[in-house]
Amino acid sequence: xxxxxxxxxxxxxxxxxxxxxxxxxxxxxxxxxxxxxxxxxxxxxxxxxxxxxxxxxxxxxxxxxxxxxxxxxxxxxxxxxxxxxxxxxxxxxxxxx
Amino acid sequence: xxxxxxxxxxxxxxxxxxxxxxxxxxxxxxxxxxxxxxxxxxxxxxxxxxxxxxxxxxxxxxxxxxxxxxxxxxxxxxxxxxxxxxxxxxxxxxxxxxxxxxxxxxxxxxxxxxxxxxxxxxxxxxxxxxxxxxxxxxxxxxxxxxxxxxxxxxxxxxxxxxxxxxxxxxx
Lengths: 97, 171
Prior knowledge:
The complex is a heterodimer. Chain A is of the alpha+beta class.
């Protein structure tokens, strides 16, 4: 009985660890109110991107409705999304397919 | 209205009473209370509906931080706006000086106000690009003018802030 009870606990732990290890991505969504120059500045500040790269992502958001700004571990992605929300950008964290 | 940089301060002079009133309305306009659409926009979800746990934790731990950040920005702006009340003649044009270290707070508060107003009136993309619409018509037209006027100020502040000096953060 002890053994039978331990087994599902281990399975659960493995699943959780796998979920945490999956790469996550930071996605910024289009917003007709935020200024293009403001969005570019935010990308420079939050991700440390050079202006050209920040503008490329800003235009992608504007043209395609969304842009993946970063991908990696969940904690870091959450921190980036928090910073982006601090600048009032529409940003979400998503699991990488 | 004239905007110049003067010894590390953004100086906006010749502000007529109408524009001064619009500036005074920044903190109030940034307040999303009683407007669910504005509240939803300022505190948008950090993930899709499938990430229930993440969204629930965000509400508890992150949203209060964001509220403090936004409130701090509007308080800074409100304190700067007190200058507009210090006029000898009530209908004279005013001058507003924004210290450079308050630039971030202004950008944030102006953005809060623009987003909250736009959400409240549900402006279309076409309306938001209609820069020449007269503010004299309806409350909606005035609010659209307000959004564009605040956007103009944001553009000016951004231009004055040297993007190259922004430190590369934790990217």
